[in-house]
Each structure stands twice: as C-alpha cells, then as structure tokens.
Specification:
The complex is a heterodimer of chains A (245) and B (240). With 245 residues, chain A is mostly helical. Chain A has one domain (2-241). Chain A has helices spanning 2-18, 20-40, 51-60, 62-81, 84-88, 96-124, 133-157, 161-178, 190-196, 200-212, 220-241, and strands at 44-46, 49-50. In chain A, strands 1-2 form a two-stranded antiparallel sheet. Chain B is an alpha/beta fold. Chain B has helices at residues 43-50, 72-76, 94-102, 111-117, 133-144, 163-179, 190-196, 214-219, 226-233, and strands at 3-14, 17-28, 32-36, 58-63, 79-82, 151-155, 182-187, 199-204, 207-212. In chain B, the strands form 2 sheets. Chain B has a 6-stranded mixed sheet, with helices on both faces. Chain B has a 3-stranded antiparallel sheet with strand order 2-1-4. In chain B, a hairpin with a 2-residue loop joins strand 1 and strand 2 (17-28). The mean pLDDT of chain B is 90. Classes of the chains: A mainly alpha (245), B alpha/beta (240). The interface between A and B is medium-sized, with 26 and 29 residues.
Chain lengths: 245, 240
C-alpha cells in the first residue's frame, strides 16, 4: 500500500504539472458557474428552481467529464503507446497499479473540481442545497464511477493514440455541451433534449440535479439502475478487451 | 556454474509468419550472453517470450527454473529489464522516475548511488525528455539495475549512441559482470558482442544459425573477425 501511494504521488504530480486537467476540469466549471450566475443566476430555469440551483449540480459534473473522457483514456493510451504498461509486466508489480493510480488521479481531479465549484457557489453566490447532501455525494460518486468505466472502455477499445484522440474528442465535447454540464439543459429545445437524454452523462447530471433539489424524481431509480448497468457492462468489456501493448 | 535461464524449443508466429522458430539455449550464472541478428530477426520477440510478455505457440522459457508469466513476483524481484526504445511519462523528472521504479520493488537500491555510477547525478532534477540519447540510455540501464538484479536483460541498449557513449556503457556492463551479474543482451553491433559477450547466439528469421564463444564462432567460419564471420553466417558474404 505504501509503495502504491508512492507511485500514485508521482503520477499525481505529473498530472498537476501538465495543467490540462486544472484548466478543463477545475478552472472552466468555476468560470462558467460565475458567468451563468452573472447572466441569469436568480432567474427561474424551471418550475420552482433557479439557474444557479440547476447549474450547481451540472457544473459539479464537469470535472468528472474531463477526467473520464479526456484524462483517463488519453493517459492510458499514451502509456500503452510508450510501452510503460508493458514495462510494468517486467517488474514484480502489476500494471494494474499504474492504471489504478491514474484512475485515482482522475478521481482527485473530479473531486478538486467539485469542491471548487461548491465553494464558489456557497461562499460567493449564496447557494444552498435543498436536497440531502449525503445523497448528493452518493449520486456524484455513482456518476463518477459509471463515467470512469466508460473512459476505461474507450481506452480498451481504441488500439492507437490516434483513434483514442479522435474518440475522446467525439465523446468529450458532446458530453460537455449537450449533457447539460455546461449549457443548461433547460435551454435546449425539446428535440435536442431527447438527443441529450441518450448521453450517459446527461442521466448522471439529471440524477445529481434531482437529488440536489430534493425533487422526488419518479424515475430516479431507473437512472440509478442505468448507471450501475453502464458501470457493469463497460467494466466487463474493458477488462475483456484490454491490451497492454 | 549453474543454469539460470533455460529456453527450450521456443516458437511463435504472428499472422502465419513464424518470427521465432524452435529456439533452444541456456545461460549460465555470471555469463554475458549475446543474442545476435539483424533487425527483425526475432531477438526482441525471443526476449518477450522468455519474459512471459508474449505467450509462445510452443516451447518454454524459464528463469531460475520458473516460468515468469506465472511467477512474476518471484522472478522479477531478481531480474532487471531494459526494453528496446523505452519511453517514459511526459514531463517526468529523473528522480521521479527513479522513485517510481524503486516503489515497485521490495528492497530497491539507492537510486542516487546508481545515478552517481552512471554519472547522471547532476541530472537528477532534469526532465527525462530533455536528456540526450546517451544520457537516456544510461538512465534506462540504471533503472534496470534498481532492484540490484541477479540477471539483467538489455535489448539493443547501445543503438543510436555515439562511440564515446557506447564505450562508457560497455565499461559499466563490464563492472556489472565483475560483480557476477548475469547479462542477457541483444545487439546488432559485432564490436559490442566481441567486447562484452562470453557466449553468442546468432539467429536469422527466427532460427538458430550458430552458437558458441566469440572465438568458436569465428573459428568455424572462413573469416578472422566477428563482423565478417557474422555476415558469412547470415549468408551475406557479398557485403564483405
């Protein structure tokens, strides 16, 4: 465990050093949070809730989106391409160590992002959560785990750096803009809302929103089941198809 | 002397092309063993099969009598490996890479001592991607020694190095040999094989051509130095 932590600390330093995750995962959602609040914070986004309340949950998911659909698959593909994963096979440790430490780095990015958005919202924008905080943390964790499993799946299915780059762009940007993570879902025309509903992250954000606003969403259990299902299926396929080199 | 590496009838095909074809050899403790052949002759695949990185179609490769693929912990605590053209994480510093590699072993060497031996200590805080080719190769050898291994595998470690850097690396390997470390190396530089290897094994298209001490290999050819003998064995006398 101590040795794993040593490995993780170095991987975490490298992740922070590159800076991408801090910009896309942390600075961006905080900036958008402030912007949305300046434009429409107290306006009603839907029945009985404001844009600030609606965007709180969705912007907290941006860190998950950045880590799951960019950070994790790109790092794994890069390490595979550089034969770093292969090199781990020639040591007493399993390459699972380095995968684990990079997943943990992604989790830390998502957490850092969520904490920053929450701090800014509560301290500067006067946000108060109507729902149960513990339930909200649970919904955040479920969203994180299910999205990370999709990120792992992307890294497993794509064989080359090029294809991973293409797929991350194809997945990351729609998830970022169409899931309601950045542009409020309530602003979408109903046709686009239907399309957005197909994105797994949309479902995670819907769940987090519902929990944060204390709404008894009738299909909340359906979403939970869906996310658990996504996690199970993606994890099984990734483990079955994963290539170390 | 006792045998520490044993390879029997190792065979591997990719897409119908046989890359390694019935290779058999053994390496004694303390020996410097050189696997020689052209690019694409099957040297790296042989190492991959022996280390359990790839599954052989048939045949076995054992280290200390164990199959590495099923005894990874036991084998790789005592074996150091430098893979061909190793790359490292973006932005990683020399000391961070050393710490990361040390973390993988139960009783790692003091990496600062290794950096001193390879005169890399001034570069401890440098980014690995900023190092010169020679410095990076020296670092990759140092990393292969971080667990103070009994056997070290070096795959084309001096490819791309200038003469001075190559000689420096040879010097380090000779010191290792004096210490009793078994060295398994692949190369296509005959000078390197002559200077370092106790025994050499020539392969072409995945098949054994000949094996023996450098002297034996030269003597059973019509030529007087290893480079010419090598070309003769490879059927490329026209180049001599």
């Amino acid at each position: 465990m101590k040795r794993f932590l040593k490995l993780y600390v170095i991987e975490q330093k490298l992740a922070l050093r590159s800076g991408d995750m801090l910009i896309f995962g942390v600075a961006m959602p905080v900036g958008i949070m402030i912007l949305i609040n300046m434009i429409a914070g107290q306006k009603q986004a839907g029945e009985g809730f404001t844009y600030l309340q609606s965007s709180f949950a969705s912007l907290i998911a941006v860190g998950i989106c950045a880590a799951a659909f960019m950070g994790i698959p790109l790092t794994i593909a890069d390490y595979r391409d550089k034969k770093i994963l292969k090199h781990f096979f020639t040591t007493p440790c399993s390459p699972v160590w380095i995968l684990g430490s990079d997943m943990l780095c992604g989790g830390v990015t998502a957490l850092l992002s969520a904490v920053s958005v929450a701090l800014v919202s509560v301290v500067f924008l006067g946000y108060e959560m109507m729902g149960n905080i513990l339930a909200f943390i649970g919904s955040w964790l479920l969203t994180l785990v299910s999205m990370f499993s999709i990120g792992l799946l992307m890294a497993s299915l794509c064989r080359t750096i090029k294809s991973v780059n293409a797929v991350t762009s194809l997945v990351y940007f729609p998830m970022l803009f169409l899931s309601g993570a950045t542009i409020p879902y309530e602003l979408f025309p109903s046709g686009l809302q239907k399309v957005a509903n197909f994105l797994p992250l949309t479902q995670g954000i819907k769940l987090m929103k519902a929990v944060s606003m204390g709404i008894e969403l009738e299909n909340v259990w359906k979403i939970v089941l869906l996310l658990v299902g996504i996690t199970a299926v993606s994890t099984v396929i990734s483990v079955k198809t994963f290539r170390w080199e | 002397m006792n045998t520490c590496i044993e390879v029997k009838d190792l065979t591997k095909s990719f897409n119908g092309r046989t890359v390694v074809n019935g290779i058999t050899f053994s390496v004694e403790k303390g020996e410097v063993f050189g696997l020689l052949g052209h690019n694409g002759a099957g040297k790296s695949t042989t190492i991959d099969l022996l280390l359990g990185l790839k599954k052989p179609d048939c045949g076995t490769g054992t280290i200390f009598g164990l199959e590495p693929s099923t005894n990874r912990k036991a084998v790789f605590e005592r074996v150091g490996v430098q893979l061909q053209s190793s790359n490292y994480q973006k932005n990683i510093r020399v000391d961070e890479l050393c710490k990361e590699m040390s973390a993988l072993y139960e009783n790692p060497e003091d990496y600062r001592r290794l950096l001193r031996i390879f005169s890399l200590e001034k570069l401890e805080k440098s980014r690995v991607d900023k190092l010169s080719g020679g410095e990076r190769q020296k670092l990759s050898v140092a990393l292969a020694l971080i667990n103070d291994p009994e056997i070290v595998f070096l795959d084309e470690l001096t490819t791309g190095l200038d003469t001075a850097a190559r000689r420096e690396v040879w010097g380090h390997l000779k010191d290792l040999k004096k210490k009793g470390t078994t060295i398994f190396l692949t190369t296509h530089y005959m000078e390197e094989a002559e200077s370092l290897c106790d025994r050499i094994f020539l392969i072409k298209d995945g098949k054994k051509i000949t094996e023996g001490t450098v002297k034996e290999v030269i003597e059973s050819s019509p030529y007087e130095n290893l480079e010419e003998a090598y070309l003769w064995y490879m059927g490329e006398e026209a180049a001599i």
